[in-house]
Write a structure and sequence with these properties.
- By secondary structure, the protein is an alpha/beta fold.
- A five-stranded parallel β-sheet has the order 2-5-6-1-7, sandwiched between helices. A three-stranded antiparallel β-sheet has the order 10-12-11.
- Helix 13 packs across helix 15.
Length: 412
């Protein structure tokens, strides 16, 4: 029911849909939370395909810049796969959905009429769509699931409407459920919107070394290829269990192998890892770094320059002496919402991407720059400021150091 390496998540989804089919759940929503590249979309795609083959009605919802949450949900629920027949198209439906109401006013220039036009994604439409889907599933005696990829694109009001629709379906015992994905920021927004607590959350973590090894070998075997032991170790160690890093390194190693060769050697794997690192540096880590504020960059450097997991108090203690961050907690919250840092059990913090710390240590600003956090760093110099009169006059100690520097007997 899922891509390789996600057996635990597949078993969880299997139990969830079984309970939904028998209307035996008070929580009829399931959300997979994880960082970018962890495999959320792939997992949801595999679940949707398998559920459809099992006879479920499946609506896959993807919000884009040109398609709001309401429109995407409406189109998916109105598809032939969900309704079991040809889709009915109303030529004036879009206009009718856009007109909320009308008004008549009388002024100095005579009577005038106006209509209040607004976007179709306002009001209780999302909740109504979910409830309608539940009622249809009950009447047809065929369970339905709504698969929503990337809840980060949904606004808080849209999330609230989604949860209200699920709550009503739960009370009415309708065999309909929602399986969704999103980042930690979407999880936080959903927690505020889910007043009825109808959505359970499961977190997607990196693969274990055994899972990453199995994914690499099984995927290569599907096309008749194989990685020798050195190549296997090089790719798996570089990935650190992160699916995106594993996929990119393996793909680049495949490209680096001689044309037509299905055997990946250690040399090809090393070339692939170097190429993958360059791409990740440019497209992921550098892009993320430039999106951070100065305070967030300082916290990121502090987290990178220490153990893999750290507590908030330890980060605050390390930064208290430098006074470079006015509010560490605000910077940490912003980093969690930006999906750079995650909070793990016991209130400790870690990077969502296992390669972030290594990139920061290779590319952090030089000692002496304004946002360098090492205590051994010299103070930052004011660029473009003229020295004061007191600074312009050499001190006796400075003169003594100057004499020593030109005296050949005082060698370092």
């Amino acid at each position: 029911m899922a891509p390789r390496g996600r057996g635990t998540e597949a078993a969880l989804a299997r139990r969830f849909v079984t309970d939904v089919a028998h209307a035996q759940v008070e929580t009829n929503g399931l959300m997979f939370v994880g960082s970018r590249g962890i495999g959320k979309s792939t997992l949801l795609g595999g679940l949707a395909t398998d559920l459809r083959s099992m006879g479920w009605r499946v609506a896959e919802v993807r919000v884009s810049e040109s398609l709001s949450a309401n429109e995407a949900l409406r189109d998916s629920l109105d598809s032939a796969r969900m309704r079991g027949g040809a889709r009915f198209r109303d030529p004036v439906g879009n206009l009718r959905k856009s007109v909320r109401g009308g008004s008549l006013s009388v002024g100095l220039r005579g009577p005038s009429a106006s209509v209040d036009i607004e976007r179709a994604d306002r009001g209780p439409q999302i909740a109504k769509l979910v409830i309608d889907a539940g009622e249809q599933a009950r009447r047809a005696a065929r369970p339905a699931v709504i698969v929503i990829d990337d809840l980060d694109r949904w606004s808080p009001s849209q999330l609230r409407q989604l949860c209200e629709g699920l709550s009503e379906c739960s009370r009415a015992r309708h065999p309909v459920g929602v399986i969704a994905s999103g980042s930690a920021a979407a999880d936080a927004d959903l927690a505020k919107a889910d007043r009825g607590q109808v959505v359970d959350v499961a977190r997607l973590e990196v693969l274990t070394p055994a899972e990453a090894s199995a994914v690499l070998r099984d995927t290569a075997a599907t096309v008749g290829g194989r990685f020798d032991q050195q190549a296997h170790d090089t790719v798996v160690n570089f990935s650190q269990g992160h699916p995106l890093r594993l996929q990119l390194a393996a793909h680049e190693a495949w490209r680096a192998a001689p044309h037509g060769t299905l055997h990946i050697t250690g040399h090809a794997a090393q070339v692939g890892v170097d190429r993958a690192r360059t791409k990740l540096d440019r497209q992921v880590h550098a892009a993320t770094w430039t999106s951070l504020s100065r305070s967030e960059q300082v916290v990121v450097q502090t987290l990178a320059d220490g153990p893999a997991t750290q507590s908030r108090t330890s980060i605050e203690a390390r930064l208290s002496a430098s006074r470079r961050v006015a509010n560490v907690e605000s910077a940490v919250i912003a980093l969690i919402r930006k999906n750079v840092v995650k909070e793990i059990p016991a209130g400790r913090l870690a990077f969502t991407d296992p390669g972030t710390a290594e990139w920061v240590l290779r590319n952090r600003p030089p000692a002496g720059s304004a946002n360098h956090v090492l205590h051994a760093s010299p103070p930052a110099k004011q660029i473009g400021s003229a020295p004061s009169a007191a600074q312009a006059q050499p001190t006796p100690a400075a003169l003594d150091r100057s004499r020593q520097s030109i005296n050949p007997t005082h060698e370092r």
